[in-house]
Amino acid sequence: MLKPDPLASLEVNLSEADGIRYLHLGTEWVQGSMRIDAPFDIDLEYVQRMMAWLLFVPPDSVGSRHAMQLGLGAGAITKFCYKKLRMTCTAVEINPRVADVCRAWLRLPPEDERLRVVIADAAREIRRPEWLGTVEALQVDLYDHQAAAPVLDSPDFYADCRHLLTEDGCMTVNLFGRSASFDRSIESIAAAFGPRAVWQFKPTREGNAVVLAQRTASRPKRDVLQARADEIEARWGLPARKWLKVFKPVER
How far is residue 35 from each of residues 32, 42, 107, 108, 179, measured CA to CA in Å? Predict the structure, then answer.
């Protein structure tokens, strides 16, 4: 008999300061945020970087793609992909209370033909045959209530993530660049995706280091990435030109 996951029943709290609403899972640690006067923008820097997969796809194709988030958090990525990018979105969240709070207080839109919230354990859900090979943008942000380390971080888990992706799909994952586990996480991702498919950002001031892995490794030329960054900023207001200064392949 499977034991219940304690993450599925954590208390969910909110706080507000300076026009920003914050999500907490029973502690003072911030698990996500929303700018109250711009609820569909992405507020946190590391969460903006989770959108770096946009550098690897033609901008005009974005609206026809499927984004999946493992860990709903405050819903920032799901809302941005759904409202701003006009994508089909699936969010997998283990705690039903998180989804309820996102709908009531964090402006998560109601489900429709383009938006689905699945209450499930991500490790099990991503093995379901219906998802395999269907995801162009996979964003992984799975932390415990202390926000201390990823709860899923093995080579087998990342291999399952790779199986979700289409041939030109990408995964982005939030890690802690100043944690002793960071190098081990990079090794696990490289084992699943191949070292030439892995890119990383320098850590933010808070220590979050976003890592990107491609289903099919490619190395776009600098001028292609620059042109994409320019268009991302113009279309969607993300600081993509700044990304290129702190984003590089893991293996040169």
Answer: 11, 8, 11, 13, 28
- What's the domain range around 66? 40-249
pTM attached to this predicted model? 0.93
pLDDT at 147: 55
Going 231 to 250 to 209 to 157, the CA torsion angle's sign is positive
Is 29 inside any structural domain? Answer: no
Give the chain's domain count: 1
Residue 134 has φ and ψ, to the nearest 5°, of -115, -5
What is the Cα–Cα distance from 19 to 126, expressed in whole angstroms? 36
Q: What is the pLDDT of residues 116-153, one digit of tens each?
A: 999 999 999 999 999 999 999 999 999 765 555 678 89
Residues near 152 by beta carbon (within 8 Å), at least 6 away in sequence: 70, 122, 123, 140, 142
